[in-house]
C-alpha cells in the first residue's frame, strides 16, 4: 500500500515511456482501483513505434500498422494525453503541456501537476548545417518517414522509366544515404533489395542503372557489431554495387546535387539523413541536471542525480554502466538497455511509494544484430559472430520476441509467412500524403503544394 496519493507523469510514449507505464499499471493495480494513484502519459503520437522494424516496413515486408502499438489499448488504466511537454519545473512539480486543442483554445500550454516524473521523450535527429539538407533531406526515424521513403524510391523509378532526359533519369536513380549506423545501413540494405526486385517490372530500368551511395564520416560502419563484422558488411554492400564511402562527409545537397568531402558530386533527388540523434529539446527546458551531451545525469537506480521523485531512462538519460570494467562508462542509448531500464525504473517508483529499498540497474550488453536485406545480415551476440542467412534469421527471431504484445507478434509473423509464399508488393501510395489534392482540383481550388521538384504525391 502506498503511503500517499501519487500522481505519476510519464513524458514520452516510446520504449521507456510505454513499458514504464505498462509495468506501473500492473504493479499499482489495487492503488489505481482505490484512487490512490494515477498515471498520465504525455506523448505526441497515440502509438509506440517499434523502430527496428522500420527498414522492413520501408521495404514492404511488414505493414506500417504492425510496426506501431496503440497506446490507449495497451495502457488501458492510464490517462493518455496526446501532446508534448514543452517545459518542466521540477522544483514546483509542474510540467507545461501543449495538446492538439491548445492552438484552438488560444490559452497557451496547460500546467500539469505531478508527484513523480518519468522523463522519457526519446531523441530527435541530429542534423548539421549542410546547405540544402532542410529542403531536400529525408529522415528515417518515424514510421511516416519510412513509408514516405518507400513511396519516394518507387516514384523515382517511375520518373526514370518515363523521362526522356538522361540527366533527370540519372538523378532519379541515384540514392544517397548519410550515416553508417543501424538506421542508415539497414534502411539502405532493405530498400536496395526492394528496388532491385521492383526493377524486374520496369521495361527500361535495370538494377545496375541505380546508384546507391552510403556516406560515413568515420572509418567504419555498424560499430555495434564489431570491427570484423563491420568490414564484412562493407564487403557485402560493395558486392551489391553499393558505393560505400568511409571517412567522407556530405558537404552540400543544395540544388539537388550531393557534394561530398572527397570531391565527388552526385545529382540526386534522394538524400536520406541518418547521421545520429541528439536528446529531445524538452530536456533543455527543465531545471534538472544534464551532462555535456545534453542528457540527464542519472544514478544507477535511474533517478535523476541530486533530485527526488524525478526519473529517466533511454535516450534521455546518462545511466552509469555498473557492469563496465572501467569507471565512468555509461549505458548505450539503445533499445536493449531501454527495455530493461523501464522495468527497473517502474519497480523503483513502486518501491519509493511503498518505502522499500531501490534496485540498481545492471545489464551487460548482449550484442547486436543487423539486417542487410532479405536473407542477409550480420550479428555479434555473446561473442559469437554470424553473417548471411543465420544472422538475418537471428535478427528476425530476436526482434519478433521483443516487439510488444502478442497481437503484434502474431501479425508480424503472419506477414513474414505470407511474404515467403507470395511476391513482394511494389506499389507506391504516395498520394496518401496529400489526400485532398484531387478533390481540391475538382472543386476548382488550388491543389496543395508539393515539395519543389517532386510530382504530386511524392515525398
TrEMBL record:
Residues 439-459 are annotated as: Disordered. Residues 7-337 form the FAD/NAD(P)-binding domain. Residues 449-459 have a biased composition (Pro residues). One of its GO terms (molecular function) is oxidoreductase activity. Its EC number is 1.6.5.-. It is an enzyme of class 1 (oxidoreductase). Keywords: FAD, Flavoprotein, NAD, Oxidoreductase. InterPro entries: FAD/NAD-bd_sf, FAD/NAD-binding_dom, NDH-2. It holds the Pfam family Pyr_redox_2. Belongs to the NADH dehydrogenase family. This is NAD(P)/FAD-dependent oxidoreductase.
Amino acid at each position: 500500500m502506498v503511503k500517499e496519493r501519487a500522481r505519476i507523469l510519464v513524458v514520452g510514449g516510446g520504449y521507456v515511456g510505454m513499458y514504464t507505464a505498462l509495468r506501473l499499471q500492473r504493479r499499482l493495480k489495487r492503488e489505481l482501483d482505490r484512487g490512490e494513484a494515477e498515471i498520465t502519459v504525455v506523448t505526441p503520437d497515440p502509438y509506440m513505434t517499434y523502430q527496428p522494424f522500420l527498414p522492413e516496413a520501408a521495404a514492404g515486408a511488414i505493414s506500417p500498422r504492425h510496426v506501431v502499438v496503440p497506446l490507449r489499448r495497451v495502457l488501458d488504466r492510464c490517462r493518455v494525453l496526446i501532446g508534448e511537454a514543452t517545459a518542466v519545473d521540477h522544483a514546483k512539480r509542474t510540467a507545461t503541456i501543449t495538446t492538439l486543442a491548445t492552438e484552438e483554445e488560444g490559452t497557451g500550454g496547460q500546467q500539469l501537476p505531478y508527484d513523480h516524473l518519468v522523463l522519457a521523450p526519446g531523441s530527435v535527429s541530429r542534423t548539421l548545417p549542410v546547405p540544402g539538407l532542410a529542403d531536400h533531406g529525408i529522415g528515417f526515424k518515424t514510421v511516416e518517414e519510412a513509408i514516405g521513403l518507400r513511396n519516394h524510391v518507387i516514384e523515382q523509378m517511375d520518373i526514370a522509366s518515363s523521362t526522356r532526359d538522361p540527366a533527370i533519369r540519372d538523378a532519379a536513380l541515384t540514392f544517397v544515404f548519410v550515416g553508417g549506423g543501424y538506421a542508415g545501413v539497414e534502411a539502405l540494405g532493405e530498400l536496395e533489395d526492394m528496388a532491385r526486385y521492383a526493377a524486374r517490372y520496369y521495361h527500361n530500368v535495370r538494377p545496375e542503372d541505380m546508384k546507391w551511395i552510403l556516406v560515413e564520416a568515420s572509418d567504419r560502419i555498424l560499430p555495434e557489431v564489431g570491427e570484423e563484422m563491420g568490414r564484412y558488411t562493407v564487403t557485402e554492400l560493395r558486392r551489391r554495387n553499393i558505393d560505400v564511402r568511409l571517412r567522407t562527409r556530405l558537404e552540400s545537397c543544395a540544388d539537388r546535387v550531393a557534394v561530398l568531402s572527397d570531391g565527388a558530386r552526385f545529382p540526386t533527388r534522394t538524400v536520406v539523413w541518418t547521421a545520429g540523434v541528439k536528446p529531445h529539446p524538452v530536456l533543455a527546458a527543465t531545471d534538472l541536471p544534464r551532462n555535456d551531451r545534453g542528457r540527464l545525469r542519472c544514478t544507477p537506480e535511474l533517478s535523476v542525480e541530486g533530485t527526488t521523485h524525478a526519473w529517466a531512462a533511454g535516450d534521455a538519460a546518462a545511466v552509469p554502466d555498473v557492469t563496465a570494467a572501467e569507471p565512468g562508462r555509461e549505458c548505450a542509448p539503445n533499445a536493449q538497455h531501454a527495455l530493461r531500464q523501464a522495468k527497473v525504473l517502474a519497480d523503483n517508483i513502486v518501491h519509493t511509494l511503498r518505502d522499500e529499498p531501490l534496485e540498481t540497474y545492471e545489464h551487460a550488453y548482449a550484442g547486436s544484430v543487423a539486417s542487410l536485406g532479405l536473407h542477409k545480415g550480420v550479428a555479434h551476440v555473446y561473442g559469437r559472430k554470424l553473417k548471411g542467412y543465420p544472422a538475418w534469421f537471428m535478427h528476425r527471431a530476436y526482434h519478433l520476441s521483443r516487439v510488444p504484445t502478442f497481437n503484434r507478434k502474431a501479425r508480424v509473423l503472419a506477414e513474414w509467412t505470407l511474404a515467403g509464399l507470395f511476391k513482394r508488393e511494389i506499389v507506391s501510395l504516395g498520394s496518401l500524403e496529400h489526400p485532398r489534392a484531387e478533390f481540391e482540383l475538382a472543386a476548382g481550388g488550388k491543389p496543395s503544394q508539393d515539395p519543389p521538384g517532386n510530382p504530386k504525391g511524392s515525398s
